[in-house]
């Protein structure tokens, strides 16, 4: 069948993509026209005033096909004079004279245009004003023999969403529902997007539930899209509920949504659900972006779930995502911080095998880990190998310098500092502070002072830590006057003095048994300068007064600390408990220990040992054993000092059976007996003749 040439020519003149696509529909349609619609002078012409068409329809049509058919019918039954686009332009000229008014409405009616959805849609597409577009949309609906179609509804919804006129949008949606118009998933998506972007998440959820209770065709991408929007808005609990609902319906997320979902879960530390999501995703062959993998692995390492991180590393390749240097570096760093240097070395080797060259950050992570575990020589060897191809920053050099200083190899640390400068990496304040700390602890104050002068010559200003270390070093060698002058003159002039600086000087004075001077420093200098004493200040003074035999003032300061609103920590409590036990005031120490637990302060092994010492000293070994059992029950691991105290106390009271059992337990854990405890236990065994000669020989060797 051939369509009339006049009809095709007019189609070609149209600049509308929608109209052209509709013409393709016409060419594909099987159109049957009757003789009543043919002009007698031209058998190929269609009577546009009164056409009559019958379109063959299949028995079952999809939603989109039904709308296309409706559009086709509306186009073919509409008047052709004037053309559609010309009608749309005439309407737009009237609307541009806005705002909407009865007069403007009369002008539209005087145009005497028979509206069709195509014309209305073209007018809406041109409108930028949401209010004007809505008024025209409502006016068009009121015209006789006119009905909105999918495209006009799509246009008005887009306009109202873009203009954030959600009050008018609600009216349109209610109208669509009242006339029985079946919403397509694309319309639902536009509305949901609009509400989410405007911050009306509850309304978006309402539309989402409407969508999934409707008869429109739904896909996993719809769930993915909505979950992605909810995740971006920070409503992760809601996203989790929707995800579980999605799984129940047999849908899957797309890879990008898995990535954003797991990233967001890691950011709020919901690592448990992130692992569940990853397991479900992995079983079905889905993967994530490299960025998401790295965030997930970083969070796992931070939570000490290193085995899970290693498992994901092994499976990344299977999911089509090859680990990069960031992935390997993150795991190496996590393993080193957990003390698993061997595992970190294995990951390092695997990185090299996979052709992923380590960068400065990866090398730095391993070097930091090795130095932290005291494997300074291994770290140095790795550094020397990698420094041939990689320029390290000051952090790596500082790690090596710090490692050598902790190992007591100051000369090696100085060599690394010199090597650092030769390689073009200038020492920073951390470099100098590390060396200053080492020299002060070694009593080499001249070297420490020289380094501070060198810092200033290089234009690097010493900070509070630099001077605090020097103050501590001066107090160690009894030069408290010089330390005070450094604080009051140099540091205060530079605005560097703080509570830590005063605590450093106070600690030095207390060690020199000048606690009274330290106390005056708190009450005068600190009070005048508005520097508030902290828990360290009080604890240092309390310990100092106890050491100097002034327990009443020490206890008064402890209670003053509490009155000032400071909560004692385990160290504060332990200092008082220990000294009370040494003064044989064990009942008072026990009561304070109970207060400590009641206040929610968890005792550590030193706290338990202090009270155990008090019980054993006053021949109350049975109570000491009960405390020991409570200690183990509470998850606090006893150390060799705990066992030594108990064994000595039990032997003095003749409880040799329990003492020997504790000694056997101590041996199993690999703890050595100190000389005095070994002698006490050996004497007890010899007196009771409980173990026999062989075990006495073993006891002598321990």
Specify the structural class: mainly alpha
| Number of contiguous helices | 39
Strand order of the largest sheet: 1-2
Rg (C-alpha, Å): 42 Å
User: What's the average pLDDT?
Assistant: 80
Q: Approximately how much beta-strand content do the residues carry? A: under 5%
| Residue runs with pLDDT of under 50 for 5 or more positions | 1-59, 78-82, 691-699
| CA-based shape | elongated
Q: Estimate the helix proportion, in percent.
A: 55-70%
| CA(first)-CA(last) distance | 109 Å
Largest sheet: 2 strands, antiparallel
Number of strands: 2
What's the quick description here?
The protein is mainly α and 702 residues long. The protein has a domain at 5-167.
Q: Can you characterise this structure?
A:
By secondary structure, this protein is mainly α. It has a domain at 5-167. The protein has 39 helices and 2 strands. The protein has a two-stranded antiparallel ribbon with strand order 1-2. Helix 8 (150-162) packs antiparallel against helix 9. Mean pLDDT is 80; it is low at 1-59, 78-82 and 691-699.
How is this fold's topology laid out?
Elements lengths: L4 H9 L3 H12 L2 E3 L19 E3 L7 H15 L6 H12 L6 H9 L6 H10 L3 H13 L7 H13 L3 H13 L6 H13 L3 H13 L6 H13 L3 H13 L6 H13 L3 H13 L6 H13 L3 H11 L8 H13 L3 H13 L6 H13 L3 H11 L7 H13 L3 H13 L6 H13 L3 H13 L6 H13 L3 H14 L5 H13 L3 H14 L6 H13 L3 H13 L6 H13 L3 H13 L6 H13 L3 H13 L6 H13 L3 H13 L6 H14 L4 H9 L1
Antiparallel strand pairs: 1-2
């Amino acid at each position: 069948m051939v369509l009339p040439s006049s009809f095709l020519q007019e189609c070609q003149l149209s600049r509308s993509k929608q109209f052209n696509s509709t013409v393709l529909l016409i060419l594909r349609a099987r159109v049957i026209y009757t003789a009543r619609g043919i002009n007698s002078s031209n058998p190929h012409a269609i009577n546009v005033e009164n056409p009559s068409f019958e379109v063959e329809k299949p028995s079952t049509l999809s939603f989109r096909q039904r709308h296309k058919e409706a559009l086709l019918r509306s186009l073919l039954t509409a008047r052709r004079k004037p053309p559609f686009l010309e009608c749309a332009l005439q309407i737009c000229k009237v609307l541009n004279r806005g705002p909407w008014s009865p007069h403007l409405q009369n002008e539209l009616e005087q145009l005497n245009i028979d509206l069709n959805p195509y014309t209305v849609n073209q007018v809406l597409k041109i409108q930028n004003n949401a209010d004007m577009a809505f008024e025209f949309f409502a006016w068009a609906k009121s015209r006789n023999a006119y009905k909105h179609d999918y495209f006009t509804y799509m246009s008005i919804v887009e306009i109202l969403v873009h203009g954030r006129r959600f009050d008018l949008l609600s009216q349109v949606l209610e109208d669509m529902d009242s006339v029985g118009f079946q919403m397509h998933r694309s319309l639902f998506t536009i509305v949901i997007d609009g509400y989410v972007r405007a911050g009306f998440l509850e309304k978006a959820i309402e539309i989402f539930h409407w969508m999934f209770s409707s008869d429109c065709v739904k896909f996993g991408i719809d769930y993915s899209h909505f979950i992605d929007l909810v995740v971006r808005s920070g409503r992760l609990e809601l996203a989790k509920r929707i995800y579980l609902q999605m799984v129940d319906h047999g849908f899957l997320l797309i890879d990008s949504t898995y990535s954003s979902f797991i990233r967001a879960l890691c950011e709020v530390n919901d690592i448990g659900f992130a692992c569940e999501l990853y397991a479900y995703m992995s079983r079905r062959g889905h993967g994530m972006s490299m960025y998401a993998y790295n965030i997930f692995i970083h969070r796992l390492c931070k939570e000490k779930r290193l085995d899970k991180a290693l498992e994901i590393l092994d499976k990344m390749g299977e999911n089509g995502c090859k680990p990069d240097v960031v992935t390997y570096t993150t795991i190496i760093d996590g393993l080193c911080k957990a003390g698993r240097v061997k595992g970190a070395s294995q990951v390092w080797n695997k990185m090299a095998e996979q052709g992923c060259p380590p960068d400065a950050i990866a090398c730095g992570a391993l070097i930091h880990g090795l130095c932290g575990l005291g494997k300074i020589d291994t770290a140095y060897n790795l550094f020397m190998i990698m420094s041939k191809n990689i320029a390290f920053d000051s952090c790596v050099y500082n790690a090596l310098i710090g490692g050598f200083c902790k190992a007591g190899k100051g000369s090696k640390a100085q060599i690394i500092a010199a090597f650092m400068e030769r390689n073009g990496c200038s020492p920073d304040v951390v470099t100098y502070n590390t060396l200053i700390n080492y020299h002060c602890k070694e009593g080499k104050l001249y070297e420490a002072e020289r380094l501070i002068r060198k810092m200033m010559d290089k234009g690097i200003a010493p900070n509070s830590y630099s001077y605090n270390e020097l103050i501590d070093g001066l107090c160690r060698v009894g030069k408290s006057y010089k330390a005070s002058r450094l604080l009051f003159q140099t540091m205060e002039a530079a605005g560097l003095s703080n509570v830590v600086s005063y605590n450093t000087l106070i600690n030095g004075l207390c060690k020199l048994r000048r606690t009274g001077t330290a106390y005056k420093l708190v009450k005068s200098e600190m009070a005048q300068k508005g520097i508030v004493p902290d828990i360290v200040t009080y604890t240092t003074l309390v310990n100092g007064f106890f050491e100097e035999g002034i327990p009443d003032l020490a206890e008064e300061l402890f209670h003053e600390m509490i009155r000032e609103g400071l909560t004692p920590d385990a160290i504060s409590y332990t200092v008082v408990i220990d000294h009370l036990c040494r003064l044989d005031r064990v009942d008072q120490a026990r009561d304070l220990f109970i207060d400590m637990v009641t206040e929610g302060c968890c005792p550590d092994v030193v706290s338990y040992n202090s009270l155990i010492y008090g019980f054993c000293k006053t021949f109350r070994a049975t109570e000491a054993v009960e405390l020991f059992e409570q200690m183990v029950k509470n998850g606090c691991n006893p150390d060799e000092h705990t066992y030594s105290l108990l064994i000595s106390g039990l032997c003095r009271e003749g409880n040799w059976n329990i003492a020997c059992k504790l000694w056997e337990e101590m041996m199993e854990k690999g703890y050595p007996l100190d000389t005095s405890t070994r002698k006490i236990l050996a004497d007890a065994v010899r007196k009771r003749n409980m173990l026999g000669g062989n075990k006495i020989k073993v006891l002598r060797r321990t």
